[in-house]
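FIELD: query
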Amino acid sequence: MTGTTSGAAIPGPINRPATAEKLLQLMAIMEQLRGPEGCPWDREQTPRSLLPYLLEETYEVMEAVDAGAAGALREELGDLLLHIVFQAHLAESSGDFDLADCLEGINLKLIRRHPHVFGDQRADGAFHAKQHWEAVKQREKGRLSRLEGVPKALPALSRARRLQEKAAYAGFDWQDIQPVWDKVHEEIKELQAAQLAGNDDAIEEELGDVLFSVVNLGRFYGLSSEGALRRSIAKFEYRFGQVESELRRRGKELEESTLEEMDAIWNRHKKEARQGSS
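FIELD: result
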């Protein structure tokens, strides 16, 4: 252990020469790509112009994790790392900071926000450990509300869960799951009442409340609503594709088929999938 920060010892570097060599090689490749004799496209990029590609690579990492594909994950993590190195290189070229500054910042942050590991505090389980993180972060940022800091650009389901988590770490949460289920049923009834009243604005508001309560239910089960929805979307795409394929085998297009025909195919494949997984 070497050095200290806020009384905590800073771990010394581990011996990973191959990793260090490959990272330095990636940085050297980036310098050459951005150099006078490098790639015209790479030389034209700015931090903002790279954002769509950074977001795309992030989602590709998520897809690889969802698929449980280790080979794809290895490749996509490399692509994501490229964007981190690219952004750091652009910042260094502008004289703002370099990759070493980024690494130093995250190293010190991890130590500060884990006082139960690098300090003298205790954490009785994962929830208490995350409470330490949120409390330290709140002090560091000087924020007035525990709900601050969740990016507004996050997908709504993910943002809802993060806000619920932050409130829970501050003690604003139910102690068991039954009231969470009650809230889901309550919000569904309110949505039905808004529909019966024909109030479009209220319908939208109550639909949002239903979704928010379902996200909270997923949180109590330790599930990501974003991930669960992605899984359901993939299932819908697959089963709809089965309906299309079977209708094509019958020489029919979707528009030439009845809803009853499509439902029958859908339900048969759904039943077969359930029997196959049992």
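FIELD: remark
The chain has twelve helices and two strands.
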